[in-house]
């Protein structure tokens, strides 16, 4: 058609009988109309199909929001459960751009030991993710059990000795202060009452006479608390570390 349209003069006159004969014997206009109609239907069908498919941009966005830092690990120590779960929530659980089944896959990657065995047999589905959370909380997130284990950890703190020389004393006291700090912060994280006589006596029972004497003098100022005991131990350690070369 475009070729004939561009024809002029004698060329077009000579082509007219050929064109009219072609139009008479070949009903191409009807075929062309049907092809245009078919193409229109194809475009409509493609639009419907595209609207039914997942948005690729959303998928890419999901992966962009996946955590880029190392995820927390949990092996079944109930004392570590709350800290683990808070970190996992920040990195994975609170994301709205990934499905629960994908979150469950990430969760299993974070687990090991008894904690992994607890949920390992669950199928990789959205429902299994919620069930895994329930099982973990039921087994490791009970406040009473966590409290009991924290007090056991206090009793297991190493005893500090003063009869092996100042260097050994500083080393043992440094280890003691660091380990007590971890337990103390875990108790605060659990909202447990740390200001109890039993906790203070447990700590004081691990200290050698020279350090205990300093603690008793500090008590005379009144308003004694576990937090003051903790801070006094840090002060004593800093002073002794300044003395020891």
Automatic annotation (TrEMBL):
Pfam families reported in the protein's UniProt record:
DUF1759
Q: Which domain of life is it from?
A: Eukaryota
InterPro entries (UniProt xref) = DUF1759 (IPR005312)
Name of protein: Uncharacterized protein
Q: Record the organism.
A: Meloidogyne incognita
What is the taxonomic lineage of the source species?
Eukaryota, Metazoa, Ecdysozoa, Nematoda, Chromadorea
């Amino acid at each position: 058609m475009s070729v004939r349209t561009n024809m002029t003069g004698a060329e077009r006159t000579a082509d007219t009988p050929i064109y009219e004969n072609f139009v008479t014997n070949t009903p191409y206009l009807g075929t062309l109309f049907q092809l245009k109609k078919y193409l229109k239907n194809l475009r409509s069908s493609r639009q419907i199909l595209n609207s039914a498919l997942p948005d690729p941009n959303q998928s890419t966005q999901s992966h962009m929001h996946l955590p880029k830092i190392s995820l927390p690990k949990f092996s079944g120590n109930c004392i570590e459960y709350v800290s683990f779960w808070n970190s996992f929530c920040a990195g994975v659980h609170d994301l709205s751009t990934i499905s629960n089944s994908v979150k469950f896959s990430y969760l299993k990657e974070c687990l090991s030991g008894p904690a992994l065995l607890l949920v390992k047999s669950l199928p990789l589905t959205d429902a299994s993710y919620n069930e895994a959370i329930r099982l973990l909380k039921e087994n490791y997130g009970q406040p009473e059990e966590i409290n009991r284990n924290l007090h056991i950890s206090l009793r297991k703190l190493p005893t500090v000795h003063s009869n092996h020389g100042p260097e050994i004393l500083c080393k043992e006291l440094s280890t003691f202060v660091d380990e007590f700090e971890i337990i103390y912060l875990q108790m605060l994280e659990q909202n447990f009452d740390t200001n109890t006589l039993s906790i203070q006596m447990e700590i004081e029972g691990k200290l050698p006479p020279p350090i205990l004497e300093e603690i008793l003098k500090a008590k005379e100022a009144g308003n004694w608390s576990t937090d003051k005991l903790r801070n006094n131990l840090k002060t004593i350690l800093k002073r002794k570390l300044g003395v020891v070369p």
